[in-house]
Amino acid sequence: MQITGGSFDVHESLTLGAGLANAGTLDIDADVLGDQTLSNSGTLTLAGDVTGTVSQTAGSTTVDGTSAVSGGFDIEGGTLTISAATTADIDIAAGASLVVNSALTGNITNAGALDLQNDISGTWTQNGNDTVAVSADGLSVGSLAFNAGTLSIADATTFNVGDNGTSQEDAVFASGSSLILGQGATIAMAQAGDSLRFDSGSSLIFGQDATLTGHSILNGAVNAEASGIVFDGNVTVGSSAVVDMANGTSGDVVTVNGALTGNGGTVSLDVDLADGAQTADTIVATGHGLSSGTLHLVLEDQTTADTYGATEAGGLVLVDLEAGSTVTATVDATSFPTDNRNTYTYTLGNNSDGDIVLISQLNNAAAGLTGAIASAQSLVASVINRPTSPFVTTLSKLNEGEKCRPGGWARVVGGTANATGTATTATSSVETTTEARFGGIQVGLDSTCFNSLLLENGWDVSYGIIAGYNTASADQPIPGTGATAGMIDSVTELDMSQAYAGGYVVAARGRFSLDVQARAEKTDFTVNSSGLNPLAVDDTEFDTTAYTLSAAASYALSIPNQPNLFFVPTAGLSWTRTSDADFMFNDGSQIELDASTTAISFVGGTLARTMVNEANGARSAAFATLTHYVNLSDDAASTFIDTSDISTAIRSSALPDYTEISLGYTYNRELRSDRGSLRKFSASIRADGRFGQGFDSYGLTGQIRLQF
User: Fold this and answer.
1) Cα–Cα distance between 417 and 434 in angstroms, integer?
2) Nearest to residue 596, comparing CAs of 557, 554, 635, 641?
3) Which of 118, 137, 169 marks a domain boundary?
4) Quick count: other Cβ atoms within 10 Å of Cβ 371?
5) What is the pLDDT of residues 538-587, one digit of tens each?
6) Partners of 471 in the beta sheet?
7) How far apart are CA 393 and CA 408, in angstroms?
């Protein structure tokens, strides 16, 4: 049957023996039976049940009375309008349109335009690329399957998804599809266990204060740049997910009222590390169960240059988690904020609650500088000014009535040293090696008296004064962090000069000898830095003063049956007190070095073989010495203070215990008294090697003494 034109009204039940094609105007207010196809290309109005299919290639179909279409609607063109309760499946082709003004029981497969103003109790499958806007508040759909196109939920509108059946995956957005939530909009799942899945290639865009309920499974792109976003349920961030909270302003919060599960997805966050006013975009997942898995964070630095500061002790929270959660996070090295003043570096960590936080660390170079200074001070105390005795020898033959003889000596030392130390703050620890080259000269003048001059107790005693000057230069390579991890970030260059003066007493009786020294020292330091991220220094200077007291004792033992072989055990202690000092960087920050004490004990022994030149009476000896030094000092303490008066305490490790091996040669010759005032000439040369954990040094010492 065909209707090619005109208007027809049907008010009684109609049974079709074949299909009915309408190209005119047809108003059906009755049931259509016969399980045939009712096709329309004109105007069709329906208010009744159809046991068959309603198809349309053009024109319009309007359901204006309660209807049920067993074979469903197949709309290839034109418009289908549901204006009364309808039970049917509907298929809308591209170029066609559907208007749902009344409740629909059935499934929709849509590739055309859709105007949704009422509920759909079945599944809505979207295959077209059009945008479907939902502006009516409180609408519901049984389930969603978006294979293409965009679902846009208007501001302050709630759209309900799911039914009251078993928890299931009630909403799926496949690759190429999108969900846009307006300001204050909500997608509400029927049950907490119902899930929304966003596949790789899909997109989810949040407006301010928008909410998703149920279990959100994120594998696509999520624009979460607005504030007040809420996931009211569990969230899974899949490996292909990219959750973008970065909008150029830090401080936005995404709340997860459920467990957060990370499967390696990416989350982009804004951070602002301005000193004293630090903020960051934050994901908050607390109070609703333990979170787990892994996330990859991308940090967008919004900090104004020259304002970078230290984070609080607990760090700047990026992901706030329920205590006991096990979420771990990674950040690309190039993603960490970079302080243009090179004062702080930043890294990822966990606070005491298990939250993922951004932690500031004092730049390795600044922290390491304190270690270089500590190493230099220890090198001066224990290597350059080696705890050793003044160069005093036995008296030459005295004339009758003569008790004392004057003398003088000089000692020259040079060598290298490498010391590895650790500088530790509350949030970081950096190990560096200081490579030093040193040299020095020491002179002494004394008077050596037989039988103690005054007490006549059998002791030969020398009373003397000493003075000296040392220089050293050290390089300290600084390991990089963040973008320069695995590289040398900078090299700290430390030059040092020291002048000192003091006095000594040496007493000898038989084979036993004892010496005591006291010195006052002034040391000047000059610091430079070079490399990728150098310190803010340029021939920057500071100085310290120190006082040293040392003592040593030895005893010469003969070797049985070896008249020319002697063993001399030695033990001693050196104590140095160094003043505090302030070191200023060019940018106004500073390091305050606390006063420190260096205490070194040592024990050793020398094996010497003596030789006598019968022709001129000269005595010489070749010797080997083994000495072990024990550093009794505490770690050096200092404080870094940035330009905003934020302080960071630093502890720098002391020089380790070490063992010294020495090989040397001495020469002594008494001169004739009738050939001038010089009565005795003595000289020695010694090569030293020192070895300890993280420490090695090599040096050469030469000394000469003249006794008059």
Assistant:
1) 8
2) 635
3) 118
4) 30
5) 999 999 999 999 999 999 999 988 888 999 999 999 999 999 999 999 88
6) 439, 497
7) 11
